[in-house]
Amino acid sequence: MYNAKRDGYLNGASKAIPCLGAIEGRITVLEVVAMTSLGLLLEAGDRHAAVDVVIQIREAMRAKCDEIKLNPSDADSAIGYAQELVDATFDAIHALHN
Q1: What is the C-alpha separation between 91 and 59, in angstroms, rounded?
Q2: Under 8 Å between Cβ of 86 and 54
Q3: How far is CA 3 from the centre of its chain?
Q4: Count of CB atoms within 10 A of residue 95's CB?
Q5: Do 36 and 88 contact (CB within 8 A), yes or no?
Q6: Residue 51 CA to chain centroid, in angstroms?
Q7: pLDDT digits (tens, 9 = 90+) for 10-44
Q8: How far apart are CA 88 and CA 54, in angstroms?
Q9: Neighbouring C-beta atoms of residue 54, cutoff 10 Å
């Protein structure tokens, strides 16, 4: 996502839209941070807290999708992707403990 303060220096006009590699890198960072954070919560053994976090993530995703005015299909896709990340984290933690 373009950030005027960060991306506007030097060749700002040519950097207004990040390349696909930059977008993929940023998405990867977000995935790793999200999965690591939820994984640490699960490893702490507080499954109720983890379930609460998942509920809050869904609510926050819905609110953010509404805020940026995503159409319902794209919003459902984004929320589904968030659920995939959560499921992958649960699976990874479960595999570590078996």
Answers
A1: 22
A2: yes
A3: 18
A4: 8
A5: no
A6: 17
A7: 555 556 678 888 889 888 998 888 888 878 877 76
A8: 13
A9: 18
